[in-house]
């Protein structure tokens, strides 16, 4: 499964990129499992993704809880809580 | 009329309000949020999630139109670097009745703060930091659900 | 800044909002009431009680400043003849927080409708008549007491 | 007691003037009594002031109920319910 990953704000800064294409194994079924799997890609990924309580996610441009499925997803974004307005 | 815009240029208050007022309604309300000038912020930079942001703002505008029978609504949010005193966001609503117009403005700005993917980074004398989300914003958005 | 004005000239939205925004606040809200374009009114004429009107508007503005810690407030009401689509009244508030700014606008327009001595006369195809007061306006003002 | 009377909206139109100076006798103590006394000035006054339920008043530029005193008043205004905003 090929996924377009997007990172924003300090998640993007810490990882060092705002976008990458990844190909997780089929047993990666939820956003949380994807975060676990991404954490092994680099020390920067591990650092950015360490504190789950500070992370939010969107699957195909809709906010989802971290236990949401990524089945069929094309684009997954990981970022801190939003602060617009 | 529904206008939902994300832009890096300064927000044109007069043009946006004129468009909303052009609906011929009896009541028009607006809300603007600014980079505060009094708390030591030298620059505020807004990052967003292109595509999702516009869709969320448009969806909130449509929800407001349906809920308060608005004749017109505009939501304009700026991104990129901004100086103290500059306008970050403008919402404007036109309705047959004053309470509808004002309530819809409150709804739009409350929900925008929790539902739209923007992130603020502020630069102060002591350095730059990403602004933390506030629990009270989640509470303010909750009252509209 | 408190600005409470009764005038026969058209209301200058941009200048009034710029004055309120000049306070450097984080939040600015506004409300405008217009002569409706869709209900057959050809002309609306506003009469008022010179002296008392200005005092009432100023008093309401002061009450709003105290109650919502406003940084700035403007209440501008037009009198004399007006065409459909023209602005009758503008209230604008600047506050540290968005809910304060929006609530203060609602307070000002609700209370203005019951406390300020204005009278509307509308001219339609079938003739002219003095507009009757509405009970719901009294109810809307009551919630702020 | 010399009073400056002011009339607004249809009260003004029906009476035919927006301002007049009057000198009611001392037993005219309240706004309601003043309205009674004014009603005898002319048929137009009587017509304008006939329906108390549609009249409101201000004494020295403050709204008052019709049973309010006019003791010490300089300016009394009579008008319909207000319709601004």
TrEMBL record, chains A, D:
Q: Gene3D superfamilies from the xrefs?
A: 3.10.20.30
The Swiss-Prot or TrEMBL record annotates one GO molecular function as: nucleotide binding
Q: Which GO terms describe its cellular component?
A: molybdopterin adenylyltransferase complex
Read off the CDD domains from this record: Ubl_MoaD (cd00754)
Query: Per UniProt, which keywords does this protein have?
Result: Nucleotide-binding
A Pfam family name for this chain? ThiS
One GO BP = Mo-molybdopterin cofactor biosynthetic process
The family assignment reads: Belongs to the MoaD family.
Write the protein's name.
Answer: Molybdopterin synthase sulfur carrier subunit
- Origin species: Sphingomonas desiccabilis
Organism classification, top ranks? Bacteria, Pseudomonadati, Pseudomonadota, Alphaproteobacteria, Sphingomonadales
**GN (gene name):** moaD
From TrEMBL, chains B, C:
The record ties this protein, via Gene3D superfamilies, to: Molybdopterin biosynthesis MoaE subunit (3.90.1170.40)
Q: Which reaction does it catalyse?
A: 2 [molybdopterin-synthase sulfur-carrier protein]-C-terminal-Gly-aminoethanethioate + cyclic pyranopterin phosphate + H2O = molybdopterin + 2 [molybdopterin-synthase sulfur-carrier protein]-C-terminal Gly-Gly + 2 H(+)
Q: Name one GO biological process term.
A: Mo-molybdopterin cofactor biosynthetic process
Its keywords, alphabetically, are:
Molybdenum cofactor biosynthesis
Pathway listed for it is: Cofactor biosynthesis; molybdopterin biosynthesis
Entry superkingdom? Bacteria
- SUPFAM superfamilies attached to this UniProt entry: Molybdopterin synthase subunit MoaE
* Annotated CDD domains: MoaE
Answer whether the UniProt record assigns the keyword Hydrolase to this protein: no
One molecular function GO term is:
molybdopterin synthase activity
Task: Please state the Enzyme Commission number of this protein.
Answer: 2.8.1.12
Question: Its quaternary structure?
Answer: Heterotetramer of 2 MoaD subunits and 2 MoaE subunits. Also stable as homodimer. The enzyme changes between these two forms during catalysis.
Concerning its family, UniProt says: Belongs to the MoaE family.
Q: What does this protein do?
A: Converts molybdopterin precursor Z into molybdopterin. This requires the incorporation of two sulfur atoms into precursor Z to generate a dithiolene group. The sulfur is provided by MoaD.
Full protein name? Molybdopterin synthase catalytic subunit
Q: Which organism is it from?
A: Sphingomonas desiccabilis
